[in-house]
Every structure is written in structure tokens, then in C-alpha cells.
Write a structure and sequence with these properties.
The chain is an alpha+beta fold and 381 residues long. The protein folds into two domains: 229 residues, BirA Bifunctional Protein, domain 2; 140 residues, no CATH class. It contains eleven helices and nine strands. The radius of gyration is 23 Å and the shape is globular. The termini are far apart.
Length: 381
């Protein structure tokens, strides 16, 4: 299945079961939301998962772009991305988690054609309903505790979840999801049975809400039998045919961060010293750091328009290619000037011995050199 077929299979499955499609939201949450970026498909639905009726009804489905910086250092492996899309379904009290798991198995087996013997699930040890459901279906279960409890922060909706893993190894399945990394998580079903209050008290919610989230790019890796998310058709426009010869990990990081930057710019964010703009600035500068370690003359001006245009189209954004390129090149120019000014300053400071936290603070407050930039300059030595 290509990306369009995969999305259509998921959405059609749930629409046939009474779910209404809701629009994809921007990465930028509405004013008043304390979160920098939309991090999951359920984030825009938090008020409704807490009990407010949704105008589209109690059964919903959508495709939502998300951004996470918590996994930034893992980007470049086979499964992690900064910006990704999540397929999601929700029951706002319409049906219980048992039904969600049953439908989930049906979609994976019949809709996506993944054999049940390639599946393994994890379940919270106290969630007997989910355990019995999977035992009835015939999928092996691994019981955990903290790994299968989901919450939307210190307060708000929470509850046990059940994570579905697919075997990606070349051998028959072995081990469990917590003991063998060849089990890759593709889908999470959260049974939001509680509301956590500020004093830590858990208030039962009746009827329970159910939130599911499937990583689109990870599922494509499975369906297209690829080694990593970077080998799927989503990233085909970003195969730059040796534009910047890099090792595989660096090439993946550059690809991910540039693609993510295009999406963030497309949602109206511009580089700045703090907040969302700082996340964008950090992504662009991590790209440039990787490039300039190999060749200081490499420039984002060499990036062809094709990948940018394809990404804008994929995410349905109104931004023009020229506007994106202008933002990227302006940030590159700013960063190059900062690197030029910072090298001798860091060298002089380093000559006195290893840098301390006080040194990092001094370099930031006096010269505007953020800690990660100083670390990059030190790694050049």
C-alpha cells in the first residue's frame, strides 16, 4: 500500500462504523493552549475526552500532523521522526475499549493484511478487560505496568492502554516487545477511564472514552516491507541523489529536520530566540551543523524545490516554495555569521580548561551563543 491507500483504508474502515471525519489541525495549537506544538492526534480533542460533547458526535476519525522534540536525539534511527502524521479514532463514550481492540485487530488483519502471528500486544497488568479480549482473539500478550499507563500531563484524562506491535525481523517472531526491538509499535489504544485531579485523585469516568493513535510512517514501513521510515514512499521526494554525501545517520537527520522545518514554516512559525521559533531555529541549525562538519561551503541554497513543494502539497499548506526557501536561507546566513563570531570566543574560553556551567552561561549572556552551539564548536576541534 502506498501512503494514500493506507490513509484511505484506515479512514474508510472507521467511517463504515459510524465515525465522522474531523479536519486536520495545524501544528500550532490555538491561543491559550500552553503546549508549543500539537504532539498527538488526541491533543486537539482534550476538552471532549474530558467530557464536553463534540459537535461532530461521539465517534470520530482523522489524520493529524504532529511534532515531538522529546525524541530529537533518536531521530535518525529506523522509526523516529520529528514531524509525523498520526491516524486516530475516538469513542467519546460511544463504545468501550473492548470494541476498539476488536475492531483494531480486524483492521490490521483484514484491512492491512498483516497476519495475526506477526502481532504481539502489551497490556497494563490491571486491565483485565483488555487482557481477556486479546486472549479471546488469540494474540500473545505481555503485561507491564508504567509502560501501559497513559496520561495527558499531570492532570486530565488518563487510563491504561494497549499497544500493538508488529514483528519486523527476518526470523520467525521471538521474544516480547520489551525484550526484542524487532517488535515495532504501530498502534496504541488508550482506555480513558479516569480524570486525574491536581491532588492526584483518580475520578472514574463513565462511560469510558477511547483514543487510538497509529503512526502513519511506521505503518508504511511495515506495509511496504522497508527497513526504516526513510525508505517509504513518504520520503521518496527527499532522496537527494548525493547532493550532500553524508553517512546514513546524518543523511536521515538532515532529511528529517529539513522536512520538519518546511512543515513548521508552512504552519506560520518563523525562527526566533524562544518558543516555537526556537524549535524551528534549532532544527535548521542542526542540519547546518551536520553539513558543515563535512564541508563548510555546503548551503541550503542547493536544496532543490521538488522536496519542498512535495511536502507542502502532502500537508495541504498554503505556503509558497519561495517563502520557505527565504526563511531557510535567512536562518543559514544568521547562523553562519554567529559561527564565525563564536569560534575565536569559544577557543579563548576553552584554552583555560574544560568549560563549566558558568562558562556556558557567560557565553550565552555575553555573546548570544546557546549551549548547543558552543558544544558544536567544541566538537569541531
Amino acid at each position: 500500500m502506498n501512503v494514500d491507500q493506507t490513509v484511505r483504508t484506515f479512514l474508510d474502515f472507521y467511517r463504515e462504523r459510524g465515525h465522522l471525519l474531523i479536519s486536520e489541525h495545524s501544528l500550532v495549537p490555538p491561543p491559550g493552549d500552553p503546549v508549543l506544538f500539537t504532539t498527538s492526534g488526541m491533543h486537539p480533542l482534550t476538552p471532549y475526552l474530558s467530557g464536553r460533547p463534540h459537535p461532530r458526535g461521539p465517534r470520530l476519525v482523522n489524520l493529524q500532523r504532529c511534532l515531538r522534540t522529546t525524541d530529537l536525539d533518536e531521530v535518525g534511527d529506523d522509526t523516529h521522526l520529528t514531524v509525523f502524521r498520526m491516524l486516530g479514532s475516538w469513542s467519546l463514550g460511544s463504545y468501550p475499549g473492548v470494541q476498539s481492540l476488536t475492531w483494531g485487530h480486524e483492521l490490521i488483519r483484514d484491512g492491512f493484511g498483516i497476519d495475526s502471528d506477526r502481532l504481539h500486544v502489551t497490556v497494563h497488568e490491571d486491565d483485565l478487560e483488555s487482557l481477556r479480549t486479546w486472549e479471546r482473539i488469540g494474540v500473545p500478550v505481555e503485561l507491564t505496568r508504567d509502560e501501559n499507563w497513559w496520561s495527558n500531563g499531570p492532570t486530565g484524562p488518563c487510563g491504561p492502554d494497549s499497544e500493538i506491535f508488529v514483528w519486523t525481523g527476518d526470523t520467525p517472531p521471538e521474544g516480547t516487545p520489551t525484550t526484542d526491538p524487532r517488535w515495532v509499535e504501530v498502534w496504541n489504544h488508550v482506555m480513558m477511564r479516569y480524570l486525574r485531579h491536581e491532588d492526584g485523585r483518580l475520578e472514574p469516568v463513565t462511560p469510558e472514552r477511547v483514543d487510538t493513535g497509529m503512526g502513519l510512517e511506521r505503518m508504511l514501513t511495515i506495509l511496504q516491507r522497508k527497513r526504516s521510515v526513510y525508505d517509504t514512499d513518504v520520503f521518496r521526494p527527499w532522496r537527494l541523489d548525493g547532493l550532500w554525501p553524508l553517512d546514513e545517520r546524518s543523511q536521515r537527520v538532515v532529511t528529517d529536520h529539513l522536512r520538519s522545518s518546511v512543515v513548521v514554516i508552512g504552519d506560520g512559525v518563523r525562527p526566533s530566540p524562544n518558543g516555537r521559533g526556537y524549535v524551528l531555529r534549532r532544527l535548521v541549525r542542526r542540519v547546518l551543523t551536520r553539513l558543515w562538519r563535512v564541508d563548510p561551503e555546503w548551503t541550503l541554497g542547493d536544496l532543490p524545490t521538488g522536496p519542498i513543494e512535495s511536502t507542502i502539497d502532502h500537508f495541504g499548506q498554503p505556503t509558497g516554495v519561495g517563502q520557505v526557501r527565504e526563511v531557510l536561507l535567512s536562518e543559514e546566513d544568521r547562523f553562519r555569521r554567529l559561527m564565525t563570531r563564536g569560534r575565536p570566543v569559544v577557543t579563548r574560553r576553552r584554552s583555560r580548561g574544560p568549560l563549566t556551567d558558568d562558562d556556558f552561561r557567560y557565553l550565552h549572556d555575553t555573546y548570544g551563543l546557546p549551549r548547543e552551539l558552543v558544544v558544536d564548536l567544541l566538537e569541531e576541534r
